[in-house]
Design a protein that fits this description.
alpha+beta; 5-stranded mixed sheet; 4-stranded antiparallel sheet; 5 helices
C-alpha cells in the first residue's frame, strides 16, 4: 500500500466512510478539515491534523511519527508509518486523547486544586468511559472521577497523570512537575500578660505567630534571661526602665521577625510613706510633769503639750 492509499484509508476510517474524496488533492487535508481544522498549520496539513487530535509537537522532528505515537504505534508497518496509522485507525479503532487542566498550578501547602478533564475523541470514535488519575503527593493519590479535587499538603513540585479509556483503547497524558506547592509563610507575633511590671515581677510571653512555626528565638532586653528559644517564655525584670522585645519565628522555608519597641515599662517599687501628721488621740500631761515633747513624739509613746 502506497502512502496515498494509506492516507485515503485513514481519512475514510476516522470518518466512518464520510470522507469520499481528497480535499485540494490530499486525503490528509480532508481528514484534518473533517476533524475541524480550517487551514494548514504552518503550511502543513499533517500538522493541522495532529493539532486537531491534541498532538501539538512533532516527534523526532516528524508529525507523522507523532500521529503514529498518538495511536500507540511504536514501529512502522512494512516500512511505512502511514500504513501503520491507517491500519490502526481502521482495525484498532479511534483512541481517545487524554488532556486536562486545573484551576491553579501553584498553591500554598494545604490548598485544594480542581482538576478538569479536557480529553477528546476523534470524530466517530466511541465516548470516553473511564478516567484514571495519578497525583504525586496529592490527597487522594489516585482518582477515577472525571473532574476530581485534590489537596496538597507537602511542599514541592509534583507530577500529574491522566489515563482515559473508551471502547477502542486508552491514552495517557503525564505532565512532569505540573503542580507547585509552596510553604505557608510564618507571620511572627506575640503578647505579654503585663507590659507595666514592677522591679522583680515575672512577665509571661505568649507566641501568637501564624503559619505553624517550629522554632522561636526571643530577644528580651533588660530581662532575666534576656534570650529564649521557648515558644512561651517567662522572664523577670529586675531593673526599672523601658525595654523592647523581639521574636523571630521560623520553620523550614519561612522566617519572620516581630519587634515591639519600648514594649515593656518596668517601674521601681514605691517608697514607704512618711508620717507627717498624727490622727490618733494620745495622752498628755499638764503642769511640770515630765514626758516626751510633741516634737519627738513617736507612735506608742506618751507625751505632753508645752
Amino acid at each position: 500500500m502506497d502512502i496515498q492509499l494509506a492516507t485515503r484509508d485513514y481519512a475514510q476510517c476516522i470518518s466512518n466512510g464520510a470522507i469520499t474524496e481528497p480535499t485540494g488533492g490530499t486525503w490528509v487535508a480532508a481528514a484534518a478539515i473533517y476533524l475541524g481544522a480550517t487551514e494548514p498549520l504552518n503550511g502543513s496539513w499533517i500538522a493541522a491534523l495532529c493539532n486537531q487530535l491534541g498532538v501539538t509537537q512533532p516527534l523526532y522532528g516528524s508529525y507523522v511519527i507523532a500521529l503514529a505515537d498518538h495511536y500507540g504505534i511504536s514501529q512502522p508497518v512494512n516500512g511505512s508509518w502511514w500504513f501503520a496509522i491507517a491500519d490502526e485507525a481502521c482495525n484498532g479503532g479511534i483512541l481517545p486523547v487524554a488532556n486536562f487542566t486545573s484551576d491553579v498550578i501553584t498553591i500554598q501547602q494545604g490548598g485544594t486544586v480542581q482538576f478538569t478533564d479536557t480529553s477528546t475523541v476523534g470524530a466517530g470514535g466511541p465516548a470516553i468511559t473511564q478516567w484514571s488519575w495519578v497525583f504525586q503527593n496529592g490527597t487522594p493519590l489516585t482518582s477515577t472521577a472525571q473532574n476530581p479535587q485534590v489537596q496538597y499538603n507537602t511542599v514541592g513540585n509534583f507530577d500529574v497523570s491522566l489515563t482515559v479509556t473508551n471502547a477502542d483503547g486508552s491514552n495517557t497524558k503525564t505532565v512532569l512537575q505540573y503542580m507547585t506547592v509552596t510553604v505557608v509563610p510564618v507571620d511572627a507575633d506575640f503578647s505579654a500578660d503585663n507590659v507595666a511590671p514592677t522591679e522583680g515581677d515575672t512577665v509571661n510571653f505568649t507566641d501568637l505567630s501564624t503559619g505553624t512555626p517550629t522554632q522561636w528565638s526571643w530577644t528580651l532586653t533588660g530581662a532575666t534571661p534576656n534570650t529564649s528559644s521557648l515558644q512561651n517564655p517567662a522572664v523577670v525584670y529586675n531593673t526599672a526602665g523601658t525595654y523592647s522585645v523581639s521574636l523571630t519565628a521560623s520553620k523550614t522555608g519561612s522566617t519572620d521577625t516581630e519587634t515591639k519597641t519600648n514594649y515593656i515599662t518596668v517601674a521601681a517599687p514605691a517608697a514607704p510613706a512618711t508620717i507627717t501628721t498624727f490622727s490618733q488621740q494620745f495622752l498628755g500631761y499638764g503642769g511640770t510633769q515630765t514626758g516626751n515633747a510633741i516634737e519627738t513624739f513617736r507612735q506608742g509613746e506618751l507625751g505632753y503639750i508645752k
